[in-house]
Amino acid sequence: MTRRTGLLLALLALGFLAIPAVEEAQETGGNPHGPLRVGCEHCHSPQGWTPLRKPLPFDHGRETGFPLVKSHKGVSCVGCHRDLRFAHVATACADCHENVHQGTLGFNCEQCHTPQGWRDRQRIFEIHAASLLPLTGAHATLDCEACHRQPPPFEHAATPVNCVDCHLQDYLRARPDHQRLGFPQTCDQCHDTSDFANATFRDHDRLFPIFSGTHQGVWDTCTDCHTGGNFQSFSCLSCHEHRRSEMDDEHDDVRGYRYESNACLSCHPTGRE
User: Fold this and answer.
1) CA–CA separation, 203 vs 210, rounded Å?
2) Torsion-angle region of 26 (φ positive above 0: left; ψ -120 to 50: alpha; else: beta)
3) Distance of CA 186 to CAs 162, 164, 190, 237, 248, Å?
4) Do residues 192 and 198 touch, judged by C-beta distance below 8 A?
5) CA of 37: how far to CAs of 21, 136, 219, in Å?
6) Within 10 Å of residue 229's Cβ, how many Cβ atoms?
7) Residues of the chain scoring pLDDT < 50
8) Residue 228: which of 177, 263, 170, 169 has the closest Cα?
9) pLDDT at 18
């Protein structure tokens, strides 16, 4: 350290020189770091330029607008400042990190990633929540590669979002036989994302109310009414334990009465008497 530098540091310590004067000296005196808003003593000591003070009394976020948090906090200064002139450093993600998606998802890395790490799942959940396929139920436990199977860089941009695109084999193997019975391939009409066993056809009330009205809570499984494994047919008589003679007597004044399930539905479309 030169005598001039030592004197300068001493005067700074005693408060005889203001920071603007230091900045001017840095700009005109060939400071290897270029113009700085802080004095040399923030990082160096009178004992020598190295080693640097520990911890450095330098708030990176306040002084530069780029806070060092999470993964960035453990990076050495030269990991980003590869030039001694500290201002010669970019702040965009792509300036330091390779865009493995090759621009197919845009260049706003912060949309999906955080300084916590590339696999910060909380941010991924937030992104998916606004997409056509929110990560709920069993989907929330999957690795990204389980659905994003296309080769890079299209592994995210070209991912299908329809249930059957991933669950076609589940549909073909399902019992009762979904294909033979003509069930639609829009799985979410009956299933949720927790478990295929949790099948609930909520749209059934549009055809015949079983989740409301007099039939709410009086059945356990679909086969209570859809006997014989054929979901395109139904039976009212398997649950309503009346002898035919009683029904005949009760309907003796009903024109066209028949003791048959389709006839029951034609007169009682909502299940009410």
Assistant:
1) 10
2) alpha
3) 8, 7, 8, 31, 42
4) yes
5) 11, 49, 76
6) 13
7) 1, 3-28
8) 177
9) 36
Tokens encoding 227: 């006997």
φ and ψ at residue 256, rounded to 5 degrees: 80, 10
Dihedral sign (CA 10, 11, 15, 21): negative
CB 63 within 8 A of CB 115: no
- pTM score, whole prediction: 0.48
**Residue type for 29, please?**
G
How far apart are the two ends of the chain, measured CA to CA in Å? 102
What is residue 23's predicted lDDT score, i.e. its pLDDT?
43
Which pair of tokens denotes residue 173? 């193997």
Closest-CA residue to 66 (of 92, 46, 40, 44): 92
- Nearest CA-CA partner of 219 in 204, 239, 234: 239
Question: Could you give the C-alpha distances from 130 to 88, 111, 122, 206, 241, in angstroms and in order?
Answer: 37, 12, 13, 29, 50
pLDDT tens profile 6-48? 433 443 343 333 334 344 444 445 688 888 777 888 888 888 8
